[in-house]
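Review form for a predicted model. The reviewer records the input and the model, then writes brief findings.
Reviewer: anonymous (R2)
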Amino acid sequence: MRNLFSLLCVAMFAITASAQITWNVKGGAGFATCYGDAEGLSSHFVGKIGVGIEKPFAPNWSVMPSLEVAWKGAKYDYIEDDYYKTSETLDMFYIQLPIVAAYRFNLSDSWNMTLKAGPYFAYAISGKMKGDYSMGDYYDSDDFDVFDDGDAKRFDLGLDFGVDFEYHRFVLGAEYELGLTEFSEGLKNAAAYVTIGYKF
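Model under review:
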């Protein structure tokens, strides 16, 4: 899986050798959680930053690969009679490569709207589970690496959906990522971000 991810990164930058390439940078924040065979999980504040390119291939159509650092995870809180309390936070950081197809609508002389969708490929560079536990006056906390100390898988594959509003070279967008592979038994990633970017 690591070799596949490296090959995709090389392919992305090979595209830049052709003409009509537009570069862009973006950053954003949002919320992530995990779905699947788990109950009681809640959303967790996350973010992402990235750099990408846009290559037109037909009128109004383009392909937009990006290289990003994406923060994902989830929270779990449990309280029983205000006596036993558990709070766990999962933070995972991925290097990921979304490759989306985009269709651009011209709204006015200054504004465009772009709809985009496609797969993403991701590889985790770190993952920590932090827990706080209390029972009456007793309190304890710990953390561990879910990849090195646990059985979580670093490779992630999913779908990326988004909409961008472009004002000249500035871009305001919303993105949703839905993981299709389990990073741990019965659990998959899901995240939504609001982003702001700039086109060069």
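Findings: Residues 2-15 form the longest helix (14 residues).
Further findings: The chain has a mean pLDDT of 91.
Recommendation: see findings above.
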